[in-house]
Amino acid sequence: MRNLASLLFAGGLAFLLLAIASQLAFGTPSMRVGAEILAVAPDEVGAANLVTAVLLGYRGIDTLGELAILFAAATAAGVVLGRRHANARRDPPGGEVLRTGADLLFPLLLVVGLYVIAHGHLTPGGGFQGGVILAAAFFVIILAQPTRHLRHSLISWIEGLAGAAFILIGLWALVEDGDFLAPLLGQGAMGELLSAGTLPLLSLAIGLKVGAELAGIMAHIAEAEAPDA
Amino acid sequence: MMSFTFETVVLIGALGLAVIGALGMVISNHLFRMLLALAIAESGANLLIVLTGFRAGGVAPILGAGDPAASMVDPIPQVLVLTAIVIGVGVQALAVALLIKVYQAYGTLDVRELRDRMDADVAAAAGVEADASQDAPAGGRPLSPAPSRGTAGFGRRSPAPADGLRP
Amino acid sequence: MIADMTLSRLLAADVGYLVLPVVLPLLGAFLMQPLARVSARGARILGPLLLVLSAGITAQLWLQLGDAPFSLAIGGFAAPLGILFYADRIALLFALAIPVFALLFWPEFGPGAGGRDQAARRDALMLLLVAAATGLALSGDLFNIYVFYELAAVASFGLVALTGTGRSQVATFRYLMISAFGSVFALLGIAILYMQTGTLNLAQIAQLAPETLPNPIGLAAFALMLIGFGVKAELFPVNTWVPEVYAGAPARVSALLAGLVSKLAVLVVVRLLVLIFPQPEAAELMLVLGVLGILTGELAAWRAKDFPRMLAFSSIGQLGMVFVAFSISGEIGLLAGLAVMLHHLIVKSALFGLAVRWSGSLEALSGAAGVSPLASALFVLFALSLIGVPPLPGFWAKILVLIGLAEGGTPLDMMALMALLLATAIEASYLFRVAIRLYEDTPTPVPPPARRDLGVAALLGALLLAVTVGLKPVADRLGEDAAQLGERALYIQTALPSHVARKD
Fold first, then answer.
1. C395 assigned to some structural domain
2. What secondary structure does DSSP assign to C312-372, as a single string?
3. Distance to chain B for C132, nearest Cα, Å
4. A–B: how many Cβ contacts below 8 A?
5. A20, A79, A156, A206: best mutation site toward chain C, by most C Cβ within 10 Å?
6. pTM of the model
7. ipTM greater than cut 0.85
8. Does residue C364 form part of some domain?
């Protein structure tokens, strides 16, 4: 009965949304702010990847909030999953092929992750994307050998210091330039690895933080006691 | 009726995902399925946001990548979606952590069984008959820790289903 | 010499400092866990220290920049390209109230159960909640508001799960699901707004709203965002998470969520309503949902059999009344809404503070007055104010709502009026029931509230009495705040580039 009501409600909702959506100017956006950003960003921020210019420049404080949300989720997961029991039963390690493959993939994934982070302001990519790839390197290790533990203290230090670095760069801009998270350090030549001022540094901070955080969450989950059977 | 252009199809797709996901969250009787439905709904919403920047014949907003004369799509929705995806990942990771703990405490993720076991749990902690009203938790507060820390509790008290975790 | 320049720059009250109440708690949260490994005492002090600092900065900005609203372009990128922080009197009032209330309800000093790691996490989550709440009060950008809203949500998930019982984990999961469900809807609403207006800056959207957001598109977007942001504001029907969460979470956390965070969610909805959705249907939608909230909340509170749940349901009812108040058009609606909101902030927080020890069933509270006379007296004071007994502030707040509804005159308004009167009667019934029980002559098993919680409750009670005595000046000031809140033109004028360019 409840299911029927929900189904009808969802159907009605879908119909309404479709009716609304058909009236929207789809495919020809007004781009009121977007067009202006496309015009001024290359000069103001100096990054070739305009999405990164918006992410770390124009909407920098949104990105800070997003970092904070991921941090809050990791901390909350830590609260929920609590301490690791010393004798917690773990899943058995993977077979030879899996473990060797994981060991081979680990450095490759780290390199790819760092590459994506470093080139975030030039090509598609950036701190978050690269950070996830870094974390994936650790996921692979954890999944192949669940008995290996990651040092939570190290993860916690990287997380904390990388996040603090992001904010401190922003505060430095506040002191220097009067505005939190204003771009500093000169723009350099467009398209070079070292261009766009503090943007690569911010990307690096984000990448390390996200990588450490996700690896930490995975480690917590892996250490939660394995269920019966 | 709207013409079935590419734009219309993707728009219907995005809205459809969001509605299906929302429906799934409301109807599900299994906590993990609820989480999967949430993931679907979030994908739909994110897709809709990206679509707001869509421009027929547009290219990615990256300088030096393609034809400099072509019009670039709006970079803002892409930033918004990046943020929204990351937020979604965080929330889903936390949800999984909670599910692990709930399963450890109660041995099941099925909503109906969970309700029964939670009531029985409260009653057992207070040593009285399970009270039918959810407004009147028997026993004082704070509740003593659930006797089912780890799997040694309710998983064996009542005839458990074969595998409460199977969605 | 550089140090000298830096120091003099730091000491001048600069509008740029408006970000600090948001950013400093974030910095503290990030560093909390590493710090705890190095120095446990340092970690314990860091949180309250940062809160005092934030409150100080906000207070200084308020005193120095006076009563006219001002705005700050973050990063020097002028709106609408960049993100804007907007501070009018109400925003600053909340920005000041947040660290103060967080300090009043700061979790136990010391590790508590769970060891040093849990304590550090708990403090980090509190700081994140404070940062998010401050951001909600100050932000002038639609997506930025969404981000801070989500941060507040995730931080509160963590705080609620601190008790660690299976029940609280199920309650947290349910809260998470409903909140995420709402977020999906909010994102859909934001997508619609962006597609129509092409901007995320609230002031610019306000300017463009009349042409680009006619009904039904505007109404649909508003409804979607109302559901989205209404989760934290305990709006009907996305408030089913409230009783289990408030009952299962540590009571101080419930005090902050029910008292403070819910008000910020309401503030966001009010900003949207005032600036972007002036159409009457939007207000009507809020009115209907508010009335449903009042009725369901108060009826459920009447049936509740333990103290935290009773408070939780009562809070749903009161927030319903807040929505009804804000749906009244004109300045009187804003004034009534603000009055009820601030009154509830004080009263509900204090009541949850008392609930730290009084967390059992209502029967167990019999005779508690013998053991804790001050707490019982405070309870009676707050109950009277909630019901609306003159001359307490609760009476004035409620009367404003009733007058506003009566002046409205439409059938919907009349229905809301009746619902409110009925709700008052029900409230009186269950609150007096508890009060009578408190003063019974039987020995009680319930311990008296801890000194700190009692102190906080007494402080808030004293504040309530002070407002009662000095009602006229408070009401006048609140009236000015409401007038400023409602002035769309003032907002647009303050926020958009010609007044904000800091970097050229």
1. yes
2. HHHHHHHHHHHHHHHHS-SHHHHHHHHHHHHHHHHHHHHHHHHTTT--SBGGGGTTHHHH-
3. 14
4. 152
5. A79
6. 0.91
7. yes
8. yes
